[in-house]
Amino acid sequence: MKTYVAVFLTLSCVLLLYLNCCDGKTFDVKLLEEPSGLWSHNEEDKPLVMQINPANFSGPPHFRSLIGKCFNKSDNMYQYKFCPFFNVTQHELSLRWNPYNGILGVWQDWEIANNTFTAMLLKEGDKCGSISRTSRVVFECAPEHQLKNVSEPRTCEYLFTFQTPFVCHPNAMLVYPTMEDHLRDAWDELEGQYVREEITKKGYNKELTKIFQRAGFIQTGTKPLSKKSSDMLSSNNSNTGNNQFTSLEQCTAAFNILQAEIEGLRTLLMLKEVKSSKSYFNISDHHRGGKIPTN
Ligand SMILES: *[C@@H]1O[C@H](CO)[C@@H](O)[C@H](O)[C@H]1NC(C)=O
Ligand SMILES: *[C@@H]1O[C@H](CO)[C@@H](O)[C@H](O)[C@H]1NC(C)=O
Ligand SMILES: *[C@@H]1O[C@H](CO)[C@@H](O)[C@H](O)[C@H]1NC(C)=O
Ligand SMILES: *[C@@H]1O[C@H](CO)[C@@H](O)[C@H](O)[C@H]1NC(C)=O
Ligand SMILES: *[C@@H]1O[C@H](CO)[C@@H](O)[C@H](O)[C@H]1NC(C)=O
Ligand SMILES: *[C@@H]1O[C@H](CO)[C@@H](O)[C@H](O)[C@H]1NC(C)=O
Ligand SMILES: *[C@@H]1O[C@H](CO)[C@@H](O)[C@H](O)[C@H]1NC(C)=O
Questions:
Q1: What does the alpha-carbon distance between residue 236 and residue 192 come to, in Å, rounded to a whole number?
Q2: Ligand 2 within 6 A of 56 CB?
Q3: Amino acid 141: pLDDT
Q4: Can you say whether the dihedral through the CA atoms of 278, 281, 283, 285 is positive or negative?
Q5: CA-based nearest residue to 228, from 211, 197, 203, 253
Q6: Can you give the pLDDT at residue 41?
Q7: Which of 148, 170, 245, 261 could crosslink 251 through cysteines, CB 3.0-4.6 Å?
Q8: What pLDDT is recorded for position 79?
Q9: Could you give the angle at which helices 181-195 and 201-214 cross, rounded to 10 degrees?
């Protein structure tokens, strides 16, 4: 008897659930075919999910203070949000039931040319047909941080201009001064090989990319630099502009640049077969007129 009751109750429950479920309602299934190349339809409060993790911070030390900050830019249809070292997102400014929201890229690599950080590359954004959306953020000197000039030079490749006082000093974006000693040594060594024509330009670029990967500027697995990185020694590091420092950051940057210059000179000397002991030329020596101890 108990079994019958149990079975009956169970069946009733199933029946009730079934009736409740479909009582005059249609199923809430979206059968919309999404044309490729358009945003997937996110519900407004559904959080966006990055497909990959942002890379760690790297680059000019004074950029570290941008971590955790975000910068908006609105045009008539969209709001764009750039969070340096994290992501770029796009939000449709409309009251439709399904405004488009999407990720235009996740922080990955610095673009480097001529010993200079030239742009931030944010990759693996939301799918766009068979590719992922990517963003490139270039810099422009200005008194305030501001996101400007959003454009889409190629489908699903976005270009932003980020105005910032951080790039105004002519040497603010140099790569070499930001690197650790052992990586500078590797770069110096590579310069030597290139100057002595022991490696080709192509080989040089390949090895330099590896050094940048070790420095964390470029993630492994990304393609080699598209632009040629030129000889760091040929770039005009000596031009320090007008030496008006308004902050400790600028002063520190200038100090690093001078230090790098000395490293560069040291390399040149080594190339000229000037042998010297390990204790030559550190930053505190340079005011002595650069006398080189010889063995
Ligand atoms: C983008 O980065 C910002 C800053 O860290 C973070 O608050 C936000 O959640 C990220 N957006 C997405 C969609 O992950
Ligand atoms: C980021 O830094 C942390 C700690 O410094 C390290 O453990 C981690 O491997 C780094 N991640 C990447 C992707 O390099
Ligand atoms: C950026 O957008 C957020 C949310 O939409 C808003 O609260 C904030 O005021 C905006 N900031 C700027 C500088 O436009
Ligand atoms: C790098 O510098 C060289 C000469 O200094 C110049 O010819 C070249 O256009 C520069 N390349 C870039 C990408 O700025
Ligand atoms: C961005 O826009 C400003 C003014 O609208 C213009 O002066 C500047 O040249 C533009 N920059 C780029 C990189 O297009
Ligand atoms: C570097 O600066 C010197 C003078 O300071 C100038 O004569 C030379 O043309 C510059 N080189 C480049 C590549 O800009
Ligand atoms: C730098 O030079 C000073 C004074 O000549 C010396 O005491 C110091 O040990 C040197 N440092 C290095 C790292 O060689």
A1: 18
A2: yes
A3: 96
A4: positive
A5: 203
A6: 44
A7: 245
A8: 93
A9: 180
- 10-residue stretch averages of pLDDT, the chain, 295 residues long: 49 43 38 39 61 92 95 90 96 80 94 95 92 95 94 93 95 94 95 94 94 93 39 36 61 75 69 50 46 49
Q: Residue 112 — φ and ψ, nearest 5°?
A: -125, 130
How does strand 116-123 pair with strand 134-141?
antiparallel
Which of ligand 7's atoms lies nearest the C-alpha of 280? 14
Task: Determine the Cα–Cα distance for residues 126 and 103; give it in Å rounded to an integer.
Answer: 5
pLDDT at 270: 63
Look up residue 47 and give its two tokens.
Answer: 């959080």
C-alpha radius of gyration, the chain, whole number: 28
The residue type at 76: N
Closest to 253 (Cα-Cα) out of 87, 90, 62, 88: 62
The residue whose CA has the least distance to atom 2 of ligand 4 is 114
Nearest to 55, CA basis, from 222, 269, 267? 222
Q: Which atom of ligand 2 is nearest to the CA of 56?
A: 1
User: What DSSP state is assigned to residue 160?
Assistant: E
Q: Do 112 and 187 form a contact (C-beta atoms < 8 A)?
A: no
3-state secondary structure of 88: strand
Q: What is the pLDDT of residue 49?
A: 83
